[in-house]
Design goal:
Distance between the termini: 29 Å
Helix content: over 70%
Membrane topology: Multi-pass membrane protein
Order of helices and strands: HHHEHHHEHH
Low-confidence stretches: none
Protein name: NnrU protein
Structural class: mainly alpha
Pfam family, one: NnrU
Strand content: under 5%
InterPro entries: NnrU_dom
Oligomer: single chain
Number of helices: 8
Number of strands: 2
Subcellular location: Membrane
Length: 181
């Protein structure tokens, strides 16, 4: 469990570094991007190994209804993390589509994974997404939305999200985490 907690904490620290410690981050210049990227990769590795090794109480699991709801939420999560919202006509005024999509991803995974390691991983990352949105809003209160795009772009990115969900679900199945049924 310690590796998992360290991974989530490192994810938080790497992503909030420039906003929490701008005096330390700014002098690093472009080298700082590499340090942050390395920290993010390390956090992902720690989270993967930590999650696979972690053990904890189990409260709920997969159910056919929650699997279907999870997959529906995942389509929207994938769409929001795509360029669709900034290039389309439906969500172009949304300030944080990627972080909202990320939060939906965590919520969807908590719906079908009711164990302590999942609470730490998906709950910790979901809270991070909400905190990140608040920190960005506080640091940059003035924001102008993108110009409205074409509904065709929304349709293209939504279709791509469905295809991507199928691929991700297939890979999950290969790893022993069946995503469909």
């Amino acid at each position: 469990m310690l590796l998992l907690i360290l991974g989530v904490a490192l994810w938080w620290g790497a992503h909030l570094f420039k906003r929490v410690a701008p005096g330390v981050r700014a002098p690093m210049g472009d080298k700082g991007k590499g340090v942050v990227a390395l920290a993010i990769v390390a956090s992902i590795v720690l989270m993967i190994f930590g999650y696979r090794m972690a053990d904890g109480a189990f409260f709920w699991g997969r159910h056919p209804a929650t699997v279907g709801i999870n997959n529906l939420i995942m389509i929207f999560a994938l769409y929001l993390t795509s360029p669709g919202p900034s290039k389309g006509a439906l969500f172009y005024k949304m300030r944080h589509p990627m972080l909202t999509g990320f939060f939906l991803w965590t919520a969807a995974h908590l719906l079908v994974n009711g164990d302590v390691p999942s609470f730490v991983l998906f709950g910790g990352l979901g809270v991070w997404a909400l905190v990140e949105m608040a920190v960005i809003n506080r640091a940059e209160p003035n924001w102008t939305p993108n110009p409205k795009g074409a509904i065709k772009k929304d349709a293209i990115f939504l279709a791509a999200s469905v295809v991507l969900l199928a691929v991700i679900g297939y890979v999950h199945g290969l790893l022993g985490y069946p995503a469909f049924g």
